[in-house]
């Protein structure tokens, strides 16, 4: 996702929760952490988590 500023913090958190659940389901279904779909979902989740952490760091610096 290139337009992070359009996603609210609440929506971002919901996306992360949903992707965590999806990742868990994909792992159970495919059985291997190296499965292509598992890796893709994991990487997508990583991107959203990094954005969440970036926002939290910005908020801390602004205080």
Automatic annotation (TrEMBL):
Pfam families, sorted: SpoOE-like
GO molecular function: protein dimerization activity
One GO term (biological process): regulation of sporulation
InterPro entries with a match to the protein in the record: HLH_DNA-bd_sf (IPR036638), Spo0E-like (IPR018540), Spo0E-like_sf (IPR037208)
Superkingdom, natural source: Bacteria
Name of the protein this chain belongs to: Aspartyl-phosphate phosphatase Spo0E family protein
């Amino acid at each position: 996702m290139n337009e992070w500023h359009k996603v609210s913090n609440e929506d971002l958190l919901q996306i992360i929760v949903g992707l965590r659940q999806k990742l868990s389901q994909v792992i159970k279904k495919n059985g291997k952490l190296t499965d292509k779909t598992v890796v893709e979902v994991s990487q997508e989740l990583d991107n959203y988590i990094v954005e969440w952490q970036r926002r939290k760091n910005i908020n801390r610096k602004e205080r």
